[in-house]
Structure formats: C-alpha cells, structure tokens
Amino acid sequence: MKSFSFSRLWALIIKETKQMLRDPSTFLVAGLLPVILLLLFAYAVSLDIRNLPIGIVRQSDSVKAQSISAKYSGSRYFVVHPMRNMVEAQEAIKIGTIRGIVVIPENFDERITRPSLGPIVEIISDGTQPNTARFLANASSGVAQLWLQDNFANSPQFQATMARRIDVIPQYWFNAEIESRRTLIPGAIAIVMTMIGTLLTAMVVAREFERGTMEALMATPASRIEILAGKLIPYFLLGLVATAICTLLAVFAFGVPLRGSLLGLFASSSAFLIPALGQGLLISSATKNQFVASQIALFAGFLPAMMLSGFIYETSSMPVPLQIMSNIVAAKYYVSSLRSIFLVGDVWGVLLPNIGFMLLIGALFFFLAFRATATTLDGKK
Amino acid sequence: MPESPAIKFQNIVKSFGNIKALDGVSAEIKSGQLTGIVGPDGAGKTTLMRILATLLHADSGMVNVAGFDPKTQNQNVKDVIGYMPQRFGLYEDLSVLDNLLLYSKLRRVDAKTREKLFARLLEFTRLEPFTTRLAGALSGGMKQKLGLACALLGEPKVLLLDEPGVGVDPVSRQDLWRMVEDLTSDGMAVVWSTSYLDEAEKCAEVLLFNEGKILFDGKPDELTQTLNGRSFLLKGDAEMRRKVLGVALELDDVCDGTIQGSAIRLVKKSNASDDAIIKTAKEFDYIATHTKPRFEDAFVDLLGGGPGGHSKLADNFELERDISQTPVSCVNLTKQFGKFIATNNVSFEVKKGEIFGLLGPNGAGKSTTFKMLCGLLIPTSGTARVAGHDLRKAAKEAKSNLGYMAQKFSLYGLLSVGQNLEFSAGVYGLDGKLKRERIDEMIDIFHLEKYLSSAPGDLPLGYKQRLALACALMHRPPVLFLDEPTSGVDPLTRREFWMHINGLVAKGVTIMVTTHFMEEAEYCDRVAMMYGGNLIALDTPDGLKASVETKDLQNPTMEQAFIELIRRVDAQKGEAA
C-alpha cells in the first residue's frame, strides 16, 4: 500500500536543493559562518591574553627599579599605567581601568640581594575575573623573573633567587597561543555543523509548516519518509560541504595539522550529522513555527554544543549533573573525535565508540521526530 | 447512469481539546458540480477539508472520498484528490515551472503526459508568460491560479479548495470562478470553502456551517427562496438611514437589517406582518418595497436573526473635543518605496460624522494611504491632516485624536482581557479615576466581566471584536480608523459591529475604514476606490454603482461596479500604451 518511490524522493531533493541554493541564509551558515567562527576562535577567543592594563606603583627611584618598570612597559602582555601611589592604583582597579597592580617596593634594591626581606615585587590582581587574574599573576611574576635573569645571570645571588621562583619559568617555554588555537578550531567545526544540522534544518521544516506547503505536500501521494528524507539528504550533504570548507580553512589558513585521515573525518562528521539533523527535525515538527524553532535550536542545540561539549570548558571539571547531561550532547563526542583526528591521528579506539554514541543519540532523536511528525496535522493548526 | 456521490460523510465528530470543531456532520457531495462549504471563521470548514484531504482523522463517524476511507486508505485517497490549502501551498522561492514540476513528479505524472498537461494548464491559467518567475513574485490572483494548477496536476476526481477567495480581489476571483466552472463540466467534484456569502450564492450546492454544525444542505436558491416576501428595501432621505435602521432593528417583527448604499435592507420575521415595517418607514418619510431576498438574509434568519439596533456604547459616548468639520484630509499624498509608487498623488476630504471607505484590490495602495493618514507611515510628499493637525508636524496631537483598530483585532495575546484594557487606557494617557471609569464602562457595555482574566485568544470571535473596539475607543477619539474590521467574521458579529459604528457616527465620530469586502463598502457614506496607487473614483456607494450602469449591466452590485471601474482603467492604459 505504501510504496516508496525514488522518483518522488528525487523530485523532493531537487526542490530542496534549489530552495537551498536560492536561500541566502544557506551561504551565511555554511560558508560565511565557518570563516567567522574560525577567525574568532583563532584570534579573538584565544585563551591567552595580551595588552592587559596594569598599574605600576614604583615606590623606589633607584636605577634598578626604573629598569624593571621599563621591563613591564616593554612586555606585550601588559599596557602599563604608572600610578603615583597605592590609593590611586586601588581606585583604578575598582573602576576597572586596570586589572592588576605591580608594586615595586621602597627597598627594591635590597630585596634583590636579600630574599628574606620578601618578594622583589608585589602583585595584586583583580579577582573578579579569575582566569585573567591567574594569568596576570603568572605573567607579571614572570616578567620580574626575566628581568632578574637578564641583569643578574652572573651574580652569585642569582642562584638563590632562581631557586625561589623556579616554578614560574616554564610559562615561557610553552607558547599557549598556538596550542589553544589548535584545540579550539576543531571545536568550532562542531559548532558550525550544529548550526547547519540543527538550526537550519529546524528553520526550513518549520517554514514548510508555516507557509502551508507541508499541508500541500502531505495531501500528495508522497509518503512521510519521502518528505523527510527529501528534506534531510540535501542538508546532510550541505553539512559535509561545510565540514570540508572548515577543514580546508583550518589546515591551510590557520595551520592546524590534520594528522588523521579524511576517512576518519568523513565518518565522524557523517555520524554527527545524524543526531544534529534529527534534533532539528524534532524541534521543527514539535513547534511548527520558525521563530520558536530557532529559539529552541539555539538553546537545545547551539548552547550545549558550545558549553557542554568540552569545546571550551573541560567537561570533567563540571558539576556532576552537568557532566551527566553532557553525555547526551552529541557534539561532545564529535569534538573529541575531531581533536583526535586533527591533533593526534585516527585513534579508532576513540573514534569508533564516539561514532557509536552519536548514532545512538541520532536514533533517539529520529524516533521522537517521527512520532512528532504524524502524517496528519492533528493537534496543531 | 446513477452516479454514486464523490464524497460522503456521516456523523463526523472532531474535537481539539475542549472545542468541537465538527459536531456530528453528515452530507453527500456530487461529482460534476461545485459544492460550497460556507460559514464564518471557526465554523469547522477547514477541519472538514483537512479530513477529506487525509490530513486529519475524524474522532468518529464515517468518511468516504471517491470510494476510499481517508483514514485507512489514505494513499488511495491522495491519488485521486487535488488539494489547495489556504495560502495556496506554493514554494515562493521556486519558479512557477519548478512548482509545477515538483507537484507533477510527486504525483508521478510521466514525462509525456506532463508536457501536454503543462501546456493545457498554463494556457488555462494564462500563466504561460511567467513560467520562470518566482512564485513569491506573482500577484495574489496569479498565485491562486498557480496553486489551482498544482492541485490539478494529478488529474484528480475530487478537487478540494480551502478558501481560495481570501486575499484575492474580485477581478481575479471572477477568473477563478470561470476556471472552476470549466472543471466541473468535465465531471470533477469541486469543493470550495469560503466565508464570503456572495461566493456561496454561485455554488451549485452549499453546506452551510456554523459552530461545527451544518445548518443547511442544498441549493442556495432553495434557501434564499424560503425568505420570499420577507425582504424589504427602504428608501428615503439618505441622511436619515442609520437612524431609521436603528429604530427598525428594535421592532419585534424585524429579524435583520443592514445598510445598503443609501437604502436600508430589512428582513421581517417569519409569520410577521408587513405593517410594522411600513408604518415605521412612513414615520421617516421612507418608502418600503418588497425586494428579492439574498442568501445572506436567509443565513442570518437561519442563525436566529441579527442583533438589535441600539448601541449602548454610543449612548455613553460623548465627543470631548470639538474638532474641525474636516477631521481627516489629505492633499497630493504620495508614498514611494524605492521606485514603486504605492500611493500616487491622492487628495480627499472627509466630513465630520462621515463613514469614509477606502476600497481596492490587494496592492492598490489603500493600506499605504491609510497608514499615512493615521501616522504609521511618513509620506514621501503631500500632507495628511487629522483633526486639523498635520501628521508630519504635530503627529502626537493628531494621533491623540484618533482611535485605531488594526486588522484581525491586534490584541496582546499574552495579556488578559483586563490587562489589554488597562494597557490601552494607559497608552492613550488616561489615568486615575478617569481611567478606572472608562475601563469599567467598557466592561459593562460589552459584557466583558466574565472574561476579564482570560486570554483574548480564548474569547469567542464576537467578544474579541468587542474588546478590540473597546480598546480603540477608550480615549473617546473623534476619529476612528478601522483596517479591514470584519473580514472573516460571521454576519451576526459584523452586524453587531456596525450597529456600534452607526451609533458612534450619530454622535459625530468620523470613521475611516479600509476594506476589500463589498458588503462593508455598502455601509460607507462615500467610498474612495484605489487601483495601482491612484484614486480612480470617489463617490457614494450608489453613485459608484450608477456610474457603471449600462443597458447590459442593470442594477449592478458593488462588486460589479468595482470590476467594471478597474476594467476601464486597464482599458485606458491599454489604449495609451
């Protein structure tokens, strides 16, 4: 009775593709968005910081004190605001013009040679932004360290001073900038794919309901499977095209290595598209309204992919309920797969279980979506 | 041969939550003729259409479409029906040809047949020159024809058209009727749902719906004829007609009455005598004559008659500000959007206490003109004045003198009825004791008490309309703007609405109304007809009708006048070109 017709499916795919190619938002999401996101994550969201405003309170006028002060001014990590006294500095940190204070004490020269007098500089940072504060503390003590090294490398006292602060030195052997870009870009690909799979799909299916075309389609002999497949296949392909664009950009423009194989990338991306499309379909058939669908897609697709996928925040350091929740976020498995494909190589021991989980979540979404798109319009207008 | 009916249904019940959309309806629909599913919004028309198109399943009852059960044999049903949903079901971002191709492939029309079929349908719909145009760029009438062509692709035995006439101007509608008549003569069963009663009159048979029930099943003439001898036309001093109508509607023997141009149409109750009507007419120097009943008269009679003629709203309404004798006027009003001239050099003056209508097909510029007059759009050139204030220089003063009721009663769905009233009072600057008084007054007049805490969306249509009117009138504006006030509304609700409006006019309120609805134009003192951004005629409804009267076209209706006036403009353009 229900005959599946490939010619009908083909007609629907052609129609969807034509619409997709004519829709400017397709290009925005599949072409421009990857570029913007990758640029953002490569430069703006890099997890290390430059040009941090700090204040310097120099209580000593010695040549050495002036020299270390100049060292701070010369550092690319800081923009230095000279402060006359602590009161002024405290005021500045309160209103936020500076993020930290470096105090060069009155007995600076003596402290260099006599560690028992206390640290050579005192560092105070604004704790309202913990990451920045931590970075500021590390970087500014590092500058002091470097200054010591430059000026007293041959001095006998230097050994003693070194010993005291040795723990900070590795900060300069390790270029965090490139490393954060390397881990962020694979994550950005997951975000782009979520946007295409979930947001775009949710919008286009909801649009059919909104404009009454779904009603017209359902009254034709086309079956539900044909209608849904005709909708999803073009977006599946679009998702793969976007992955390819992202990969090309990542490798050639941002210098991220691709240590794994294209097969691994293709398999993982295809597997991720199943839950992403399924979620989009579920959202749109449940809401049948573009505005609501896009809101839900942002909350239920984009935000978890951003926050709970381990893309920016390590899931293992989250509270337990969030950790449990993150297990049903398909993007988590995709981010993990992408990182291993880009940075390590095809570790099938990681990829295969990830693919398995993604397919499982996808199956769940599709099951729910099929129940929601009853062939009839029952329940909703 | 004795044909079995194309569609048959018995005792269909369909509920959505607590609302019974269909409450035990039964009927048969024949092949080879046009059957109208007629009724106001919310009567159950769309639900029935969707059940027939297999999109909804009835809760109980028997349904049979061309020999198949839409519930269990939906694939068979889909193969033999053509269905055009409201808004035509077209992909606006695909071309005309792409739309046709898609639907033909979905119906698996083979390539050879397709070519012939396309050629025939394109000729039939006169869409041939536009095959590469995007469907979204077509006019309303052309979209509708394309929608029809798409529904016809499988060469269906049953064609279901859900409100095809909505949003389409009379000229295009006339085209569509011609096409549908052709189809029925080929033996197709065509089902046409509509809320326009004038469309119903043209159907071979109608199923008249109200609140989920079928009130009448048969030829429209049969129903109309039951009113023979009960319809009257009262003519006299046109200035007095609203007052006379108000008085007449209060008579026990009168079941319905409306304004029809400069005349009054009355329907007496069955078994009532003519005396009361004739006597009342005489009191006002009016002459009452029997006239041919209309389908609408019969419908209202079937619903138990219209409301009375006394508006409590108008009783309490006093104009607080005395405004100029021309409360609304515009001079050389023009609005350009890019290269497109939406309103072109329009000038007119509206007198105090007048009902002034803007009539025109979609895209004629009536909405644009209207919006400039109430300060929602800034004109490209020309001036618009309300209550003597130039809308460009003193928009605030002008706006405080007008009340605005938007299409589809723009109420805040997430605020309760009470909160909507509070908000409207507040936004028009009422506060303290006065605000309380006005709100209480509206609640009292419109009987809104029991609905105060419900959401406007849950109100019955009539109450929604009352609430919208209350919100627009809270600050007692001397000028009231109504944008398509009663489209899709049942005749009783419309009568109640105009009863209040007539009462307000008697108190000196000036009314501006846009409509594409011919019935509504009849209520106006004067009608400005717009077409292609231009004002093409400005006269009383009777004047407009008279202006097109010829030997071939006697006693034209408003719709005929409308079509003819537009045809003349097009003909002139043709000559000029």
Name the features.
heterodimer, A: 381 residues, mainly alpha, abc type-2 transporter like fold, 2 domains, four-stranded mixed β-sheet, 15 helices, 69% helix, elongated, B: 577 residues, alpha/beta, six-stranded mixed β-sheet, 23 strands, 36% helix, 25% strand, globular
Low-confidence stretches of chain A: 165-178
Q: Give the tally of structural domains of chain A.
A: 2
- Tell me the major beta sheet of chain B: 6 strands, mixed
Q: How confident overall, as mean pLDDT of chain B? A: 86
Mean pLDDT of chain A: 81
Number of helices of chain B: 21
Shape of chain B: globular
Q: Sketch the topology of chain A as an H/E string, one letter per element.
A: HHEHEHEHEHHHHHHHHHH
Q: How are the strands of the largest sheet of chain A arranged? A: 2-1-3-4
- In total, how many beta strands of chain A? 4
Quaternary form: heterodimer
Task: Characterize the structure shown.
The complex is a heterodimer of chains A (381) and B (577). Chain A folds into two domains: 12-45 and 181-378, no CATH class; 52-163, abc type-2 transporter like fold (3-Layer(aba) Sandwich). Helix content of chain A is 69%, strand content 6%. Chain A has 15 helices and four strands. In chain A, strands 2-1-3-4 form a four-stranded mixed sheet, sandwiched between helices. In chain A, α8 packs antiparallel against α12 and α11 (262-287) runs antiparallel to α14. Mean pLDDT of chain A is 81; it is low at 165-178. Chain B has 577 residues and is α/β, with parallel strands linked by helices. Chain B has a six-stranded mixed sheet, sandwiched between helices. A six-stranded mixed sheet of chain B has the order 19-20-21-16-22-23, sandwiched between helices. In chain B, β6, α6 (170-185) and β7 form a beta-alpha-beta unit. The mean pLDDT of chain B is 86. The interface between A and B is medium-sized, with 32 and 37 residues.
